[in-house]
Predict the structure of Bisphosphoglycerate mutase.
Amino acid sequence: MEEARNCGKQLKALNFEFDLVFTSILNRSIHTAWLILEELGQEWVPVESSWRLNERHYGALIGLNREQMALNHGEEQVRLWRRSYSVTPPPIEESHPYYHEIYNDRRYKVCDTPLDQLPRSESLKDVLERLLPYWNERIAPEVLSGKTILISAHGNSSRALLKHLEGISDEDIINITLPTGVPILLELDENLHAIGPHQFLGNQEAIQAAIKKVEDQGKVKRADK
């Protein structure tokens, strides 16, 4: 959670004041929002959670080591599964060791999540289609009302939303990498179009190192000769 606290400190240094926070219903997203608000001294800001902001469902790949996936399927296939827009990993089956843990999770019942809408696997395109109704019906109206919004989401739900708001092409999204624990600023006009490209806030050298770390995931480690 050190990354979340550092994120909060960075936002505090830039004098950000938030009116509303949105998270997924996954622990990491919620805890991150709490820690950011604590660092900002804005714990009182309302927080709303939705399963539609959840991280992408990786299907049968859930729980697998990314390097092992690369060894089994090749780095390019793993890159397509992880980074492309419309390629979907193999779906999770009931025999998967995490299947019942996921689909019997109490949070989905408590949060009124339609079980028939829970995916068995998702591409980034699927994530965007899942996320957009919540953006259009709940988040966008708050932005249009003039509120400053913090979204504590995940790598792929964030990529999907940025693709939509910035008009990033299906081909170019594969090259968009979002480092963890780095605040991303996106300003929108009255039509909810991005005024400019998203900005990573913080030390740019450290941010580039964090981006490389994410990009190197899913690659086979090779011993030096």
Observations:
- The chain has a mean pLDDT of 92.
- The chain has nine helices and five strands.
